[in-house]
């Protein structure tokens, strides 16, 4: 393995299309509650609109040689973005600041998992998210059946806040204060 990490600008986001679509298929394969909701979720319907709506975007890919084998996408968006026709992801009144941080898409190709790539991309994303002084609340949304990801995020310090859409999504949350109080 000859791994390198590269931050991708928004105009180069096309390079994540295949992996984003693979992530949606992966999440459908794990889900037992409303798996059919993933049928309309893909790079065009999920990632492109998120990037357009967000205030700031941060995408990192991991490459093995020339091949992209993993990506993570995070953003800073106004909290109202998270109350829409699909769902209200969290109680907007529980967030004091106008913007929130979200680790939004995360996918490591099967044969590249368990080598620390996820931890590296997670740390890069969190370091980026933490730099926005006026953001205090961070969210990750995990679809049902994906216990592996849920446990990964818990080990990294996020806590389950609540479920939405009858358990289709589990909302994980962390506040900046919690990071500040950690050693
Ligand atoms: C969840 C996911 C991103 C984790 O990525 P990963 O690259 O497998 O994660 P890591 O290798 O960094 O860490 C997983 C475990 O592997 C082990 N590990 C880490 N580095 C290692 C190394 N160098 N050698 C051997 N094992 C290692 C550790 O036990 C680690 O446990 P920890 O979380 O307590 O540190 C990945 O499994 C994935 O893409 N899953 C499919 C898509 C998905 O579920 N996405 C999330 C949607 S919300």
Structural class determined from secondary elements = alpha+beta
CATH architecture assignment: 3-Layer(aba) Sandwich
CATH first level: Alpha Beta
Number of domains: 1
Which hetero compounds are present in the coordinates?
coenzyme A
Give the overall average pLDDT.
96
Distance N terminus to C terminus?
Answer: 33 Å
- The unreliable regions are none
Net shape: globular
Helix content percent band:
25-40%
Helix-strand topology string:
EHHEEEHEHEEH
Report on the architecture of this protein.
This protein is of the alpha+beta class and 183 residues long. It has one domain (3-181): Gcn5-related N-acetyltransferase (GNAT) (Aminopeptidase, 3-Layer(aba) Sandwich). 30% of the residues lie in helices and 32% in strands. The chain is built from 5 helices and 7 strands, in the order βααβββαβαββα. A 7-stranded mixed β-sheet has the order 1-2-3-4-5-7-6, sandwiched between helices. The protein is globular and about 45 Å long. The site of coenzyme A has 18 residues, from α1, β4, α3 and α4. Coenzyme A binds at residues 23, 26, 106-108, 113-119, 142, 146, 148-149, 152, 155.
Short descriptors:
Aminopeptidase; alpha+beta; binds coenzyme A; 30% helix; globular
Summarize the structure.
The protein is built from five helices and seven strands; from the N terminus they run E-H-H-E-E-E-H-E-H-E-E-H.
Secondary structure: elements and pairs:
Blueprint: E1 3-8, H1 17-30, H2 43-53, E2 56-64, E3 67-78, E4 99-108, H3 117-130, E5 135-143, H4 147-155, E6 159-164, E7 169-175, H5 176-181
Parallel strand pairs: 4-5
Antiparallel strand pairs: 1-2, 2-3, 3-4, 5-7, 6-7
């Amino acid at each position: 393995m000859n791994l390198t990490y590269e931050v991708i600008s928004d105009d180069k986001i096309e390079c994540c299309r295949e992996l984003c679509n693979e992530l949606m298929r992966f999440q459908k394969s794990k889900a037992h509650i409303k798996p059919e909701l993933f049928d309309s979720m893909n790079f065009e319907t999920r990632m492109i609109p998120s990037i357009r709506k967000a205030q700031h975007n941060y995408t990192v890919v991991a490459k093995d040689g020339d091949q992209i084998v993993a990506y993570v996408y995070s953003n800073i968006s106004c909290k109202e973005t998270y109350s829409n026709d699909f769902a209200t992801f969290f109680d907007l009144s529980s967030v004091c600041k106008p913007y929130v941080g979200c680790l939004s898409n995360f996918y490591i190709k099967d044969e590249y998992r368990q080598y620390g790539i996820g931890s590296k991309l997670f740390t890069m994303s969190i370091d980026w998210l933490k730099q926005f002084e006026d953001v205090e609340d961070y969210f990750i949304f995990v679809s049902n059946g994906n216990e592996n990801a849920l446990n990964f995020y818990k080990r990294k310090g996020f806590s389950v806040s609540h479920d939405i859409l009858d358990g289709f999504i589990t909302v994980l949350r962390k506040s900046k204060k919690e990071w500040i109080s950690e050693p």
